[in-house]
Amino acid sequence: MNSPGLPGPLRASEIPPADPYPVHRRYRAADPVHRAEGAWFLFRHRDVARVLTDRAFGRARCPPPSPANAPGCGGR
User: Fold this and answer.
1) Is residue 40 part of a domain?
2) Are residues 34 and 41 in contact, defined by beta-carbon separation less than 8 angstroms?
3) Which region ranges are annotated with the description Disordered (predicted)?
4) N or C, fewer C-beta in 10 Å, the chain?
């Protein structure tokens, strides 16, 4: 359940591919860090930059190298 004034769950099917920017603006203003359907959606540059540069966010450690799991972990 969403709080009053916040947009509902983000659904890709409801975002017009030709012009997604009004939807992005609405979320950036009302719910810039949005969780829906088991995923996180970030709408502000500073949030995206932090998640992409801070190792504390979503980076699992690669298992020990072996031929079976090497793809996807840098081929090590």
Assistant:
1) yes
2) yes
3) 1-21
4) N
Overall domain count for the chain: 1
Residue 34 in any domain: the answer is yes
Q: The pTM is what?
A: 0.60
Residue closest to 69 by CA, chosen among 58, 54, 60: 60
String of DSSP letters for the chain: -PPTTS-----GGGS-TT--HHHHHHHHHH-SEEEETTEEEE-SHHHHHHHHH-TTTT-PPPPPP-TTT-TTTTT-
- For residues 26 and 6, what is the distance between their CA atoms, to the nearest angstrom? 9
Q: What is the pLDDT of residues 37-70, one digit of tens each?
A: 778 889 999 999 998 888 777 656 555 555 554 4
